[in-house]
Write a structure and sequence with these properties.
Number of helices: 11
Structural class: alpha/beta
Length: about 325
């Protein structure tokens, strides 16, 4: 048998396989999501997310130092306030939980890059991502509060803001507010393509952000839709988004691929709480090899076109990259 093409030639040993590897990854592309809450001396494990914790501001620096030592250089902060109200006022309060956490983090662990989630759901008494008019979220009234929240985060030390609310026009509103306040160089990473997903369940447990009535389908996307995702992404680029995010990651890699080809901005993907919880639960039952699954999920996301990966497995992935197991 005569064969000119033999693809197996390039799979013969580990050195050769790494030489011709098409998907390259680096620890600098990882972002670790972390939850910070009001109170003192708190480090409490999240029941539905084994190995993930809520921290009070005084305990946060210890967690941040551990993240930095693992080789992860960026974190995203999510706040859990003690008091909530209909307007989500603690989201944009000068002494809000994220604002205080940023000041302490910048002082104690200044070398990390701090990104903040900008949304209202963790702060509103009703759990929705904006101001209510009856039982409906009022889009335009919410934009002012989101802009105030983003500005307060940047003033407290945030290096980047990431609006996750899915209100129409929020990227433009935040961009104008930051620019007018002298923060023209602060980037916006938009949750541009955020689906109404069942994968968010453990996060809502972690952040206490489940809606008290109804659901979020009037503002988060229908997971049947592909072209709508492209419309959202392109709109956010026009409004000034510097980075686009697809959320969740695992079931939406087709959108990661399409948007990465259609735009000229970096693409992030968020491996969300449900993905993390499934891996942890299956591993605990002995049904999967956890380390290998973590690696395979990550590589699939980068291979699809993501250049930035938000994941609760960031510390593990940094180690796997260091060990040469992936990347």
């Amino acid at each position: 048998m005569e064969m000119t093409r033999r693809p197996r030639r390039l799979r013969g040993n580990e050195t050769l396989r790494k030489m011709v590897r098409e998907t390259r990854m680096d620890k600098s592309s990882l972002i670790y999501p972390i939850f910070v809450k009001d109170g003192k001396n708190i480090k409490e494990e999240i029941p539905s997310m084994e190995g993930q914790f809520r921290y009070s501001v005084d305990r946060l620096p210890y967690a941040l130092e551990e993240i930095a030592e693992a080789g992860v250089s960026s974190v995203m902060l999510f706040g859990i306030p003690e008091h909530k109200d209909e307007m989500g006022s603690q989201a944009y309060a000068e002494d809000g939980i994220v604002q205080r956490a940023l000041r302490e983090a910048k002082k104690q662990v200044p070398d990390l890059y701090y990104i903040t989630d900008v949304c209202m759901c963790e702060y509103t008494s009703h759990g929705h991502c904006g101001v209510l008019c009856g039982h409906e979220v009022e889009n335009d009234a919410t934009l002012e509060l989101l802009s105030k929240t983003a500005l307060s985060h940047v003033q407290a030390g945030a290096d980047m803001v990431a609006p996750s609310d899915m209100m129409d026009g929020r990227v433009g509103a935040i961009r104008r507010t930051l620019d007018a306040s002298g923060y023209k160089e602060t980037p916006i990473m938009s949750y541009a393509v955020k689906y109404a997903s069942a994968f968010y369940g453990p996060f809502r447990d972690a952040a206490g952000s489940a809606p008290s009535f109804g659901d979020r389908k009037s503002y988060q996307m229908d997971y049947h839709n592909r072209r709508e995702a492209m419309k959202e992404a392109l709109t956010d680029v026009e409004e000034g988004a510097d980075i686009l995010m697809v959320k969740p990651a695992l079931s939406y890699l087709d959108l990661v691929s399409e948007i990465s080809k259609a735009t000229c901005v970096p693409i992030a993907a968020y491996s969300v709480s449900g993905e993390y919880a499934m891996v942890k639960a299956a591993s605990k039952m002995g049904w999967i090899e956890e380390d290998k699954i973590i690696c395979e999920m990550a590589v699939g996301t980068y291979r699809a076109g993501a250049g930035i990966y938000l994941t609760y497995f960031a510390k593990e992935l940094a180690r796997f990259m260091e060990e040469g197991r992936i990347g």
